[in-house]
Design brief:
One of its GO terms (cellular component) is membrane. With about 525 residues, this protein is an all-alpha fold. α3 packs parallel to α14. It has a single domain, classed as Amino acid/polyamine transporter I (Up-down Bundle). Helix content is about 65%, strand content about 0%. It is built from 21 helices and no strands. The longest helix has about 50 residues.
């Protein structure tokens, strides 16, 4: 008895709360706060959100809107992060948002809330893998072009079929790495964190110093200009709204820490710390990166010229090329920094694959996905949801197939990823806002009376973010400029909700306990 009592005394606080919620510990709980923060930071990533959308956002309304847009979006992102940190502290489970929604919405609405949340999150995360693969391939395309002589010097611009090969190749590599032991993934994510911190610092400091001329502060912080002849958008207000998209796309992903809470020591405390620390680091470094790029612009109009050295396909690559070639008459420095940025995409995709697999695993564990018995299997040796990893990779690869024919694939994938991922945040936050306070069991991180106001601001901001990603981004609207996200999401979510109405509502009860099976409605 004494031995058992001594064993009970050393039970991890996160595992204890997990058991109280009706789940037994199945995944290996060995991740420290630093490793969890590294994965969360890697999922948000410093470069991967800003870099692919920087050029289009700059073109909509000029530098001032882009620069101050990051500050405004960061401010509202804190409300979302703080609301999620409070919930994470109370519910440290791998299902995270999906699990939170079920418990916070109560026994009546819990199944529907968790169903919607889980599918939104799964869609967002799997599409998120696609955004990393696409943008990573785009950076690699620019590296190859500069290495082979630039667009003006007969360099090789990868055709569509090769671009698709790179896209699928990255997806498969991430899947292979995610089938190894958790220690390998955690180690790579720690490397990713330092890669981005050190690499980001080098780019932020070096780029303005290398550029032969820099833009004045008045240009960066106050200059506003639209480009209706290119974008077709004559409304200044609409242009500003669209210029914020780069910030809204970049500043999410901090829920990755919550996906790993069943594998994190002291998750009820360390989960919230990782969420808020990730937002803080990315907010500061991201703004510095935007400022470095904007101050280093040499010729605004030349950035978009299809006859420039990067074929007008990738504005950040052209800014780097102009800076280094202007100073040293060589593109070597630009290539090195592009490789640093590409590394960020690589590590980001690896982390998002990890998070996506955890969500699919959690949903499968609760029988909320077809062939759940297959996808919820844990690898007997590595203790990771390997089948869920490969399901995510396969769907992501299918998402990339339109690259061969359609020009706006990235716009659609980005919109789907953002709406699905961020939309998933809204369900538990709304449920937390409207539930009775006496029904909420707080964890170590608790907002008290401030909880409802914080959740209200967070919920409204999420609704606004989802709405703007459904808007047309270019006029006139044609087949090659149409934002396909509303159709893609409408069809997908429509089928999911039809499944719910016709069948799933009869048997899906949300998170299923695996300790106390006689009470499977998830209510504690």
């Amino acid at each position: 008895m004494d031995g058992e009592r001594g064993e009970a005394l050393v039970v991890d606080s996160g595992e204890k709360r997990l058991n109280e919620l009706g789940y037994k510990q199945e995944l290996r709980r060995e991740m420290t706060l630093f490793k969890t923060l590294a994965i969360s930071f890697s999922t948000m990533t410093l470069f991967t959100g800003i870099t692919p959308l920087y050029g289009t956002s700059l073109q909509y309304a000029g530098p001032a809107s882009l620069v101050w847009g990051w500050v405004i979006v960061s401010f509202f992102t804190w409300f979302v992060g703080v609301a999620m940190a409070e919930i994470c502290s109370s519910f440290p489970t791998t299902g995270s948002l999906y699990f939170w929604a079920a418990h916070l919405a109560g026994p009546v609405w819990g199944p529907l809330a968790s169903w919607c949340c889980a599918w939104l999150e799964a869609i967002g995360l799997i599409a998120g893998i696609g955004t990393q693969a696409y943008a990573g391939s785009q950076v690699l395309q620019s590296i190859i072009l500069l290495c082979t002589g630039t667009n003006t010097g007969g360099g090789y611009l990868a055709p569509r079929w090769l671009f698709l090969v790179m896209y699928i190749g990255l997806t498969l590599i991430w899947a292979v790495l995610n089938t190894f032991a958790l220690e390998v993934i955690a180690f790579l994510d720690v490397i990713s964190m330092w890669w981005q911190v050190i690499g980001g610092t080098v780019i932020v400091v070096m780029l303005p110093l290398v550029a032969k001329t820099t833009q004045p502060a008045s240009y960066v912080f106050t200059h506003f200009q639209t480009a209706p002849e290119v974008t077709g958008i004559s409304s200044g207000a609409y242009a500003v709204v669209l210029s914020f998209l780069v910030s809204q796309y970049s500043l999410y992903g901090y829920d990755a820490a919550a996906h790993l809470t069943e594998e994190t020591k002291g998750a009820d405390k360390n989960g919230p710390i990782a969420i808020l620390s990730s937002i803080g680091i990315i907010s500061v470094f991201g703004w510095a990166y935007i400022l470095a790029l904007t101050f280093s612009i040499q010729d605004f109009s030349y950035l978009y010229n299809p006859n420039n050295e990067t074929a007008g396909t990738f504005v950040p690559a052209q800014i780097l090329y102009d800076a280094f070639h202007g100073r040293y008459h060589s593109s070597a420095g630009a290539i090195v920094l592009l490789f640093v940025i590409w590394g960020s995409f690589f590590f980001g995709g690896l982390s998002i694959t990890t998070s996506a697999a955890r969500v699919v695993y959690a949903l499968s564990r609760d029988r909320g996905i077809p062939f759940s018995s297959v996808w919820r299997r844990i690898h007997p040796r590595h203790k990771v949801p390997a089948n869920a990893v490969w399901l995510c990779a396969a769907v992501c690869a299918l998402l990339g197939l339109p690259i061969l024919r359609i020009n706006v694939v990235f716009t659609a994938i980005t919109s789907v990823a953002t709406i699905g991922w961020v939309g998933g945040y809204a369900v538990p936050i709304f449920a937390r806002m409207v539930m009775r306070e006496e029904d909420f069991r707080p964890g170590p991180f608790y907002l008290g009376a401030a909880s409802r106001p914080v959740c209200l601001v967070a919920f409204l901001w999420i609704c606004y973010t989802c709405a703007v990603f459904l808007l047309p981004t270019s006029y006139p609207i044609r087949m090659d400029t149409f934002n396909y996200a509303p159709i893609a999401l409408g069809v997908c979510l429509g089928l999911i909700m039809l499944w719910w109405a016709l069948d799933a509502r009869k048997w899906f009860k949300g998170p299923v306990r695996n300790i106390d099976d006689h009470n499977s409605n998830g209510k504690v």
